[in-house]
């Protein structure tokens, strides 16, 4: 009976599938972003801002605000053009420059954005910053946080089902199968991460182009990022595409971004 119940649970997950209107791909839909993720994100963002130094009154802080507003407006314009404005109507947009030497930035579900001061030396100008902020906002619009939660839940349920199915088998067999499943699941999640990054690169280019920033400049930013020091994991073992793969893909996507921007009267 336990195996049957678990199998039904896994099947329910598989069947709760929908087409993502921004990518055209079939995806599992389990997590209600508005009910679950966004309220939590707002709480976490508030805590983060209280616990970290927010930079104000500098040229970089002004740049983050200016680019943030333009990317936000581009996101709204883009979503409206797809008939999806309802998905972000409750977003409470914020853009903060935070004192941190890491080369990082992020956008939580609901439009809460943090840009670390360390990455400003790589962005150089507004176009570089628009590349970063467009990419991070794209993650939010594509609901990647919810997707990660869903996929982790599916992997966990799959592991439970596998464990139940192997009940009564030898301990050595259970250990071997468990190790293989764990390794395969981890590699799958890494692959999903790279796919999410590539999706965010594509939509991020479109957003920066609509916002008035030439997407050609995205290549220069990612080239500067690739020149930053430090050993990097092989692409197969990373959640991000390799620098070479990312730059090559972005160069192929730039014409599409320009074409999309042209639909809104922005030409390059």
Description of the molecule:
The protein has 268 residues and is of the alpha+beta class. The chain has helices spanning 2-15, 33-51, 59-81, 120-123, 126-141, 144-165, 171-210, 216-226, 243-262, and strands at 17-19, 26-28, 54-55, 94-98, 105-108, 112-116. It has a 4-stranded mixed β-sheet with strand order 3-4-6-5, sandwiched between helices. A two-stranded antiparallel sheet has the order 1-2. Strand 5 and strand 6 form a beta hairpin. Helix 3 packs across helix 5 (126-141). 28% of the residues are buried. The model is unreliable at 1-15, 172-192 and 233-238 (pLDDT under 50).
Brief account:
The chain is 63% helix and 8% strand. The chain has 268 residues and is an alpha+beta fold.
């Amino acid at each position: 009976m336990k195996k049957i119940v678990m199998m039904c649970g896994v099947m329910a997950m598989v069947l709760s599938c929908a087409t993502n209107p921004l990518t055209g791909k079939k995806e599992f839909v389990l997590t209600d972003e508005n009910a679950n993720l966004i309220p939590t994100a707002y709480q976490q963002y508030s805590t983060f801002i209280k616990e970290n130094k927010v930079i104000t009154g500098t040229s970089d802080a002004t740049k983050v605000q200016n680019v943030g507003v333009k990317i936000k407006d581009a996101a709204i314009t883009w979503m409206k053009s797809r008939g999806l404005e309802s998905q972000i109507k409750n977003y409470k947009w914020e853009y903060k420059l935070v004192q941190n030497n890491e080369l990082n930035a992020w956008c939580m579900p609901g439009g809460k954005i943090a840009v670390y001061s360390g990455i400003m030396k790589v962005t150089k100008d507004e176009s570089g910053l628009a590349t970063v902020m467009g990419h991070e906002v794209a993650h939010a619009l594509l609901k990647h946080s919810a997707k990660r939660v869903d996929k982790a839940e599916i992997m966990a349920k799959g592991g439970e089902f596998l464990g139940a199915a192997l009940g009564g088998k030898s301990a050595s067999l259970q250990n071997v199968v468990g190790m293989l499943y764990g390794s395969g699941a981890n590699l799958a999640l890494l692959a999903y991460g790279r796919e999410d990054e590539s999706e965010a690169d594509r939509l991020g280019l479109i957003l920066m182009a609509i916002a008035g920033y030439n997407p050609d400049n995205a290549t220069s930013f990612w080239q500067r990022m690739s020149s930053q020091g430090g050993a990097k994991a092989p692409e197969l073992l990373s959640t991000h595409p390799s620098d070479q793969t990312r730059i090559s893909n972005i160069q192929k996507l730039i014409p599409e971004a320009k074409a999309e921007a042209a639909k809104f009267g922005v030409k390059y």
